[in-house]
Structures are given as C-alpha cells and as structure tokens.
Design a protein that fits this description.
- By secondary structure, this protein is an alpha/beta fold.
- The chain has one domain: 3-Layer(aba) Sandwich (Rossmann fold).
- Helices cover about 45% and strands about 15% of the residues.
- The protein contains nine helices and nine strands.
- The strands form two sheets. A seven-stranded parallel beta sheet has the order 3-2-1-4-5-6-9, sandwiched between helices.
- β5, α5 and β6 form a beta-alpha-beta unit.
- α1 packs across α8.
- The radius of gyration is 21 Å and the shape is globular.
Length: about 270
C-alpha cells in the first residue's frame, strides 16, 4: 500500500487548517489519501492550501455551533460522511489569573467551546457510520502551567478531559478520541510568543534548555495526528499523546555537582 492509499475512502474534518499544525495535518491527510474538509476563520490561509479534488475549504468560526454543523453537513454532502475529526483550532494569549477577563473568555470560546462544537457536530454522523476517530489538540500545558498563560493552561486541561470523556462515552459507538499534547512547535502562534525573547537565537536557546529534541515542526505533529486518525492506532482511546520532544520528561531542576570519587581501598586502610 502506497502512502497515498493508506487512508483512501476516509473523510476528515480539520479545524484551524489555515495555518500551523492544522494546515500541516490537512496536507498530511490529503497525502495519505483522505478527503479533507478544511475549516478556518482565515480565508487567506485556506486559499494557501491550494486546490485538490479531495479538498474542500470552508470559512468557519468554531465558536459558532451553526457554522460547524453546516461544515459537517457539507462534508457529508460532498464526500459521503465523516470518519475523522482533527480539532486543532486554538489561540494562546497572555493573561494572569487576577486579570482574567477578555482573554479568558476568548480562549475558552475557541479552545474549549470550539473543540466541543466540532465534536458535537461530527459524533452523530460517526455513530451512524459505525465509528470514527477524533484527534484533539491539548498541550503540555494540560499538565504544566506556563506563567501568565492562565487561560491557555486551563483550556488545554479542559480539552484533555473532554477528549477522555468522549472516549469513555462513545467507545460503544466505535468512536475513538485521543488528545495530542505538543510542546514547543514552530508555528505562527509560537512565533508571536518568541518575540518576547528579543531574537530567534535567544528563543531557540531557551527551548533547547527545556525541550531535549529542540523545536518541533508542524509536520512532525501532523504525522502523529495522522497516526491517531488511522487504523494503526485502533486500540488507543482516551490517550494524552505527548509530542513534546521530551519537554515533560525533563526535570526543571539544575544538575547536581559531580559526585566526588572515593578511593575505597584507601578508605579501608585508614578506617
């Protein structure tokens, strides 16, 4: 089986497909043979995906349930059903807990409500089709709180638990749900945060100190998403899949000083 045949006949709905990991995932699914309905609020980003006989692009605001339901209906009308949801749409903006307000509301609307809207729109169709695979975008921030990103931290923890709830509730329907948990990834959203470091070199140096494999590409995360969407992961559901280059494996502690070597024979003679 060639790469272009692995997911032949599968239909995927991808949110946040106009840039970053969503874009990379939509293109990776196309490469594997799936038909893709790509959603984003950024029409320019969707246009940059190009044209393909198995690709439909739709301007869609994931915070508007009617928008998402209409996009799901279009996927069914165009390609006959929905087998896969990759819910990657999200935002990340700084705001502390005590200042939580507009950023908190916007973040919860896009990251949590937007993911819920997409899941609610596809689950009935997946159930009728006999099953499907949902891949959500959580984050290492579902486990570790980054300072001054309270809304983002909480939203990603919520996405993870939403994913686990879907996995438990809909296993009987043949629907699997798994959450990707990326660390630092080269995306437009991460690039905005990188400006605070003063230079790209300083940003990359900071990442290298915390993420052993260094900065990830959007394509690397997309490959993990395709795996979770495919039958190759058929016994995986409710999982938090770390695609973080070792970020959460590495302790934040500084290394202890080297242990002083002790000459045991000398110790024994003087003891």
């Amino acid at each position: 089986m060639t790469a272009a045949e692995e997911m032949q006949g599968k239909v995927a709905l991808v949110t946040g497909a106009g840039s970053g990991m969503g874009r990379a995932t939509a293109l990776a699914l196309l490469e594997k043979g799936a038909s893709v309905v790509a959603l984003d609020v950024d029409e320019g980003g969707l246009l940059a995906l190009g044209s393909h006989d198995r690709l439909v692009t739709v301007r869609c605001d994931v915070t508007d349930r009617d928008d998402v339901v209409a996009a799901a209906a279009l996927a069914i009308a165009t390609f006959g059903g929905i087998d896969i949801l990759c819910a990657s749409a999200g935002i990340c903006r700084p705001e502390s807990v005590v200042d939580a307000g507009a950023v908190w509301t916007a973040t919860m609307n896009v990251n949590v409500k937007g993911t819920l809207n997409a899941c609610q729109a596809v689950i009935p169709h997946m159930r009728a089709r006999g099953g499907g695979s949902i891949v959500t975008w959580a984050s290492t921030n579902a486990f570790q709180a980054t300072p001054n990103l309270a809304a983002y931290n909480v939203s990603k923890a919520a996405v993870l638990m939403l994913t686990k709830s879907i996995a438990v509730d809909h296993a009987v329907d043949g629907i699997r749900a798994n959450a990707l948990c990326p660390g630092w990834v080269r995306t437009p959203m991460a690039g905005d945060l990188a400006e605070a470091y003063g230079s790209e070199e300083a940003w990359l140096a900071s990442i290298a100190r915390t993420q052993p494999l260094g900065l990830a590409t959007a394509e690397a995360v997309a490959r993990a998403a395709v795996f979770l969407a495919s039958d190759a992961s058929s016994m995986m559901t409710g999982s938090a899949v770390m695609v973080d280059g070792g970020l959460t494996a590495k302790s934040a502690s500084t290394s202890p000083p080297p242990v002083r070597a002790i000459d045991m024979s000398a110790a024994a003679m003087t003891g």
